[in-house]
């Protein structure tokens, strides 16, 4: 019986394997421990027997006739000289030994008990709960029985010595029984001497028999022993551990009836308990344990092969010794050794067993180790698959690309291919690709003829081959501009970590990204690498375009707002453009809008010598015509947009930012994702031109404050330190009153922290007063582009208190932080208060405290990433099967209803912002729109849900798309 | 104001819109002066937008929710131990608390209850204190000085009259209280206790120095009044819509007992131990408290922008079986039907061995299994069987 590889899996049945089946599927019996002979040929019936499969290219498998690569290999088997216990089932074997009769092998439960447990088992199975609790209870109850309810045989306790030894504990007559009796007969404080005659009377034995027993000539029978024990009030027995050999256990289990086994939850048809004790060991195919040829021509065998060699050697020795009639002791030793090797072959990490080691001392990686853990077969190989058509390289920014695009290096584009099905219409194009060959850029790497034969396109044959291409062929052409690919950056924490982009083939070696897609990928350009996958069938490409393109993923399902938008200098740029509402002449205005699709300026805002346009007017050019919005900006003013015109307010992070910028969010939700994508692209390029127009840089002088301000800061800090000193004095004199629920010490610490915190804030406030409004750091903090007022405070005013574990620094030497301080000094500077600013520079002690606080931050981050990674893995594993259904319910893949309506109202988390109060559907707004606005025909249909917005599936279709909607 | 035509009204009622939208539509249409045609258009547009805003069929909402909770985990802090509104009580916060919640730990790291009081107790600090003494564990050591008289082999407690007066203002004679204390000691330690006014004394049955010390040790643990697990109660005055009221925050929790205490408004009390909530208020309340607690944890970290629908889904799957199941090997992931899915998650080998013994069958329905065997997963676009047949039209 050979195992055929199934083509389509419908289900997988699990069970134990019968030794007979092992023999049936075995390609050969393995009897020789050697692998190759001196000439380098595999030895027949050895571990590398060619019937077990082939690994060397060119050789033919002796079983199936296939070559390496197509032959999956075949199992062999080893006939074990003696049965051996399978370690994985050691616990179950113990349970079975304890729960079944040593004589008749039936389970130690009466029929009604069995029926009850079987009922309970069925019920738990129906409920889909763990059956282990029931089976354990059954065994526990069975174990209580001293005698078998079926045959009446006495039962003994089973002791399990890990990993694979079992003892039956029986009471047997102690070897020193005469001495014990004699001692009991001696007189002591409480009793006089007992004569043998008295003893005989008390036990009902013959006097002579008693004499014989005392002299040790006669071993008392069990009944006599008990009589003697009760008469003398002593114990004559000792515990004896009767070792159960694997063969005994196998015999024992063979007689357990099927019905009894079902009671303890074991599937009797597929998993007979005696199969847990192995008599035949399957030998994995050579393909599962390939040997490697080293550079010096030596062969290095796989760990499994090493282990199998050990097993066969011991097995052989065992058989030889047994045939030679070796003493039982030697046989038992060999048996144990065989057990050890088989055990470690299955699992080499059993506690209590020394792991089998390689010659170098490295523990062998055997079967269990291959399956287990992150790099194991399940998580590493089966759940994580390797793919072709993928590329990885460093990323770098390119603001000229659309956010939907990605710059792909030409050398990647020539390697990744897309399959063209040649027909009459694309015949010319296909031929052109093939003619270009594999090296020139839009070329081809392979062609497949109509007969299915695949040919490599080379520099030499490309001219010739291109002539032969005809409809029906398949051409694997290079990636070209406009192809869709999938782009990913690890860690893939949310679905926006994998998005589809359109290819723009570029020179050089890096992937190029628009900077606005950094937030969803959480990417920066300090050496980050990203992965690209070229899609290989039309279904995948269609799905990628419709569902996965960056613009379709613009709204985050986490908080229902946009996650793509202006970042950093873009925000600064729009701030500069709109905050003071500067004026631009025609040339300047046109220059700002140069990289957008706007090529005509609106009416000038006024004339001041020459016509001028304000920043807000220029910004308004990018807005859709019907946009009405009003919201507060982070710069502190109100932004009013009416009819697509920015009337007042500063456009900053809150308006166009990447995390919930109002304008971007509204366009994406009320208009379309395509419109939002165009808007973001244009805002970012307008912002870049703006910031170039004004110029924007920052230097150390931008953080300096005038001397009188510095004096004020110093004074504020001095005052704070004085107040801290006062607090400490009050504390030392016991005048400090503790806060409710806190000790005096805690109170003091809290008050000092509070005082110093306020001191830093006031230093920051003083510094802030002396900054000009156009100070670049202030501009960045105020617009939300980068940094905060706290950062600015630390740079110019005072760095403030350093903390470790949320407390002022109190570790280091005994009762002091550093040797520079007196013991128990609680003052501000002795406990890590840094009063200098970053610009002034820290003194050595401050620097040290600052490093302590900084170290904690780093450690915290390191711990956090691993913890939250595991949390994420568990969450995804638990929730991955849940899916919204057509009827609105949320069910898992076995159709269990988890929610009757997703999130209680069925609303998509993408559509509704979780921070705003407004509902997903705003009836008032709809009514306004219906009553007030003038629709074009198509738009109205669309609004009423009858028509669909024109689809835009490519950057290259923008012109068409824009023509469809007149904006 | 005008009345809307009945046909429109009927049409509104017949739609699949949720009640809130129906009411809103109704009021909007009544308030504004709309023609029948306009009304119909408004209705149609509302229905269209509503349908648009619904979650798409076959959306893998589970994975999305898991990611939406897991992703902010990277931004959370570790080891924050600070206040949850009440500065006086330390409560586990941040990532450790989130992990604790999805793990469904039997006992949170820092158990805590929020106890609201009935009206009569809530407005008066004195009355509120009465409830506090019934909740906070009062150990006998707190009520007086304990001394050991080695000569007579006696443990002597001299109760402090002021303390007794303060804690039991309703009882006129502190000696009465002392009597009760004596009874408590007798029943707790099983020794004869003599009382003389505010002095209590007792000793071991047989003179033994060890037993004497043992008794003193045991005395420390004896709780006279209140709930043993509640070590501290903090009273706070809080603003509510109806004015101010006193609210109690406890360190340690015993939800079932607290609900029974006189003066406690059981309908508003909460507890941060979801198992206690489940035991006393049922699984629906437990679900609600999982949502509430996770949301609070996220809010404390400034991550309250996470859509509450994601937390609902997590809470729903944790409580789906009627008991609280943890997210992980001991809960949902360990109870999956598929052997391969369990083996691929954690403790690979033992799941395979158990499956063999029980003769399990993997029907390959889930996600992980199909990834393993290399078939398309039955989720999202992989769950659609509809195909266009070229050639056939209409």
Biggest interface reads: A-B, 104 and 112 residues
CATH topology of the largest domain in chain A: Topoisomerase I, Chain A, domain 4
The CATH class of the largest domain in chain B, by name, is Mainly Alpha
Global shape of chain B: flat
Strand order in the sheet with the most strands of chain B:
8-9-1-10
Q: Could you name the CATH class of the largest domain in chain A?
A: Mainly Alpha
E-strand count of chain B: 11
Low-confidence stretches of chain A: none
What is the rounded Rg of chain B?
A: 31 Å
Can you say what the CATH homologous superfamily of the largest domain in chain A is? RNA polymerase Rpb1 funnel domain
Distance between the termini of chain A: 72 Å
Radius of gyration of chain A over alpha carbons?
Answer: 42 Å
Give the structural class of chain A. alpha+beta
Helix-and-strand structural type of chain B: alpha+beta
CATH T-level topology of the largest domain in chain B = PTS-regulatory domain, PRD
Architecture (CATH level 2) name of the largest domain in chain B: Orthogonal Bundle
Kindly report the oligomeric state of this protein: heterodimer
CATH architecture of the largest domain in chain A: Orthogonal Bundle
- Global morphology of chain A: extended
């Amino acid at each position: 019986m050979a195992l055929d590889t199934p083509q389509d899996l419908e289900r997988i049945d699990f069970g134990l394997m019968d030794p007979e089946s092992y023999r049936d599927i075995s390609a050969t019996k393995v009897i020789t421990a050697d692998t190759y002979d001196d000439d380098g040929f595999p030895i027949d019936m050895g571990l590398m027997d060619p019937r077990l499969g082939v690994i060397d290219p060119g050789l033919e498998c002796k079983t199936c006739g296939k070559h390496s690569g197509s032959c999956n290999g075949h199992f062999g088997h080893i006939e074990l000289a003696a049965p051996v216990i399978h370690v994985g089932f050691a616990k179950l074997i113990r349970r079975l030994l304890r729960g079944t009769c040593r004589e008749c092998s039936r389970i130690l439960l009466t029929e009604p008990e069995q029926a009850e447990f079987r009922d309970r088992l069925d019920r738990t199975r129906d409920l889909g709960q763990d059956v282990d609790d029931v089976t354990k209870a059954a065994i526990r109850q069975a174990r209580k029985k001293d005698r078998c309810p079926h045959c009446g045989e006495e039962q003994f306790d089973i002791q399990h010595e890990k990993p694979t030894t079992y003892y039956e504990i029986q009471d047997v007559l102690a070897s020193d029984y005469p001495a014990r009796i004699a001692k009991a007969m001696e007189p002591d404080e409480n009793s006089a001497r007992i004569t043998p005659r008295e003893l005989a009377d008390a036990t009902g034995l013959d006097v002579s028999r008693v004499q014989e027993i005392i002299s040790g000539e006669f071993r008392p029978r069990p009944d006599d022993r008990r009589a003697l024990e009760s008469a003398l009030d002593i114990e004559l027995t000792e515990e004896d551990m009767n070792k159960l050999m694997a063969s005994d256990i196998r015999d024992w289990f063979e007689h357990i009836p099927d019905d009894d086994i079902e009671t303890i939850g074991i599937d009797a048809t597929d998993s007979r308990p005696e199969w847990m004790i192995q008599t035949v060991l399957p030998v994995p195919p050579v393909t599962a344990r390939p040997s490697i040829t080293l550079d010096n021509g030596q062969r290095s065998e796989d760990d499994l092969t090493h282990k199998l060699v050990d097993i066969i050697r011991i097995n052989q020795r065992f058989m030889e010794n047994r045939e030679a009639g070796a003493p039982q002791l030697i046989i038992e030793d060999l048996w144990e050794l065989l057990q050890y090797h088989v055990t470690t072959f299955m699992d080499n990490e059993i506690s209590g067993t020394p792991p089998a080691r390689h010659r170098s001392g490295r523990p062998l990686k055997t079967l269990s180790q291959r399956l287990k853990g992150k790099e194991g077969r399940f998580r590493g190989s089966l759940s994580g698959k390797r793919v072709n058509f993928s590329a990885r390289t460093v990323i770098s920014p390119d603001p000229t690309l659309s956010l939907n695009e990605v710059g792909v290096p030409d050398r990647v584009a020539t390697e990744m291919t897309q399959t063209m099905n040649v027909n009459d219409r694309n015949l010319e194009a296909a031929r052109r690709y093939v003619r270009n060959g594999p090296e020139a850029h839009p070329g081809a790497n392979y062609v497949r003829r109509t007969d299915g034969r695949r040919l490599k396109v080379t520099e030499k044959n490309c001219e010739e081959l291109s002539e032969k291409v005809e409809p029906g062929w398949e051409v694997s052409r290079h990636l070209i501009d406009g192809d869709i690919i999938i782009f990913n950056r690890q860690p893939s924490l949310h679905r926006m970590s994998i998005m589809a982009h359109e290819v723009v083939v570029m020179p050089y070696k890096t992937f190029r990204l628009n900077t606005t897609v950094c937030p969803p990928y959480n990417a920066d350009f300090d050496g980050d690498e990203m992965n690209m996958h070229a899609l290989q069938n039309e279904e995948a490409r269609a799905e990628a375009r419709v569902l996965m393109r960056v613009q379709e993923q613009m709204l985050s399902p986490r908080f229902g707002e946009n996650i793509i938008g202006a970042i950093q200098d873009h925000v600064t740029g729009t701030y500069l453009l709109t905050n003071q509402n500067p004026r631009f002449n025609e040339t300047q205005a046109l220059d700002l809008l140069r990289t957008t699709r706007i090529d005509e300026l609106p009416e000038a805002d006024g004339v001041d010598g020459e016509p001028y346009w304000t920043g807000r007017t220029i910004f308004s050019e990018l807005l859709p015509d019907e946009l009405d919005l009003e919201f507060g900006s982070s710069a502190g003013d109100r932004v009013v947009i009416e009819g697509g015109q920015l009337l007042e307010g500063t456009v900053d992070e809150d308006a166009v930012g990447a995390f919930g910028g109002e304008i971007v969010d509204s366009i994406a939700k009320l208009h379309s994702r395509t419109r939002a994508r165009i808007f973001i692209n244009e805002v970012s390029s307008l912002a870049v031109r703006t910031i170039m127009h004004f110029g924007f840089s920052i230097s150390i002088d931008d953080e300096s404050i005038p001397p009188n301000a510095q004096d004020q800061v110093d004074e504020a800090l001095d005052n704070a330190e004085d107040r801290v000193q006062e607090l400490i004095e009050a504390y030392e004199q016991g005048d400090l009153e503790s806060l409710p629920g806190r000790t005096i010490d805690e109170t003091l610490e809290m008050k000092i922290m509070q005082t110093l915190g306020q001191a830093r804030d006031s230093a920051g406030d003083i510094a802030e007063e002396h900054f000009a409004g156009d100070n670049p750091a202030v501009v960045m903090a105020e617009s939300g582009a980068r940094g905060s007022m706290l950062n600015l405070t630390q740079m110019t005013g005072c760095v403030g208190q350093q903390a470790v574990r949320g407390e002022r620094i109190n570790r280091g030497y005994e009762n002091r932080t550093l040797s520079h301080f007196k013991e128990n000094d609680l003052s501000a500077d002795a406990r890590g208060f840094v009063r200098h600013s970053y610009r002034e520079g820290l003194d050595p002690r401050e620097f040290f405290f600052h490093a302590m606080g900084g170290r904690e931050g780093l450690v915290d981050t390191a711990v956090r990433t691993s913890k939250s990674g595991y949390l994420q893995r568990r969450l995804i594993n638990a929730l991955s099967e849940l899916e919204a259904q057509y009827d609105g319910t949320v069910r898992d893949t076995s159709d269990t209803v988890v929610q009757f309506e997703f999130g209680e109202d069925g609303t998509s988390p993408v559509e509704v912002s979780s921070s705003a109060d407004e509902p997903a559907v705003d009836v008032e707004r709809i009514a306004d729109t219906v009553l007030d606005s003038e629709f074009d025909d198509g738009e109205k249909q669309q609004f009423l849900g009858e028509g669909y917005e024109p689809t835009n599936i490519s950057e290259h279709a923008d012109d068409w798309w824009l023509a469809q909607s007149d904006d | 104001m005008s009345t809307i035509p009945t046909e429109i009204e009927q049409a509104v009622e017949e739609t699949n819109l949720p009640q809130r939208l129906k009411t809103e539509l109704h009021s909007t249409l009544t308030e504004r002066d709309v023609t029948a045609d306009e009304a119909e258009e408004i209705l149609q547009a509302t229905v269209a937008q509503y349908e648009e805003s619904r979650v798409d069929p076959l959306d893998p909402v589970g994975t999305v929710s898991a990611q939406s909770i897991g992703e902010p985990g990277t931004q959370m802090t570790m080891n924050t131990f600070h206040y949850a509104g009440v500065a006086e009580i330390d409560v586990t916060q941040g990532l450790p608390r989130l992990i604790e919640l999805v793990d469904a730990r039997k006992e949170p790291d820092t158990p805590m209850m929020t106890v609201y009081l009935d009206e009569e107790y809530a407005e008066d600090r004195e009355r509120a204190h009465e409830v506090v003494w019934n909740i906070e564990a009062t150990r006998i050591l707190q009520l007086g000085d304990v001394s050991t008289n080695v000569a007579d082999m006696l443990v002597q407690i001299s109760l402090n009259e002021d303390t007794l007066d303060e804690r039991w203002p309703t009882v006129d004679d502190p000696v009465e209280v002392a009597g009760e204390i004596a009874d408590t000691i007798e029943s707790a330690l099983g020794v004869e206790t003599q009382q003389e006014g505010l002095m209590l004394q007792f000793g071991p049955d047989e003179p033994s120095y060890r037993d004497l010390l043992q008794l003193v040790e045991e005395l420390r643990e004896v709780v006279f009044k209140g709930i043993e697990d509640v070590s501290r109660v903090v009273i706070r005055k809080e603003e509510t819509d109806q004015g101010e009221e006193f609210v109690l925050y406890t360190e340690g929790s015993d939800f079932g007992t607290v609900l029974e205490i006189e003066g406690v408004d059981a309908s508003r009390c909460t507890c941060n131990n979801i198992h206690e909530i489940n035991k006393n208020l049922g699984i629906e309340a437990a679900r609600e408290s999982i949502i509430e607690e996770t949301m609070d944890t996220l809010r404390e970290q400034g991550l309250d922008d996470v859509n509450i629908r994601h937390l609902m889904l997590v809470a729903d799957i944790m409580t789906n079986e009627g008991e609280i199941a943890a997210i992980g090997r001991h809960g949902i992931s360990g109870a999956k039907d598929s052997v391969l899915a369990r083996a691929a998650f954690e403790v690979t080998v033992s799941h395979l061995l158990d499956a063999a013994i029980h003769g399990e069958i993997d029907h390959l329905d889930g996600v992980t299994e199909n990834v393993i065997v290399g078939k398309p997963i039955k989720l999202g676009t992989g769950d659609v069987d509809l195909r266009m047949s070229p050639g056939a039209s209409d």
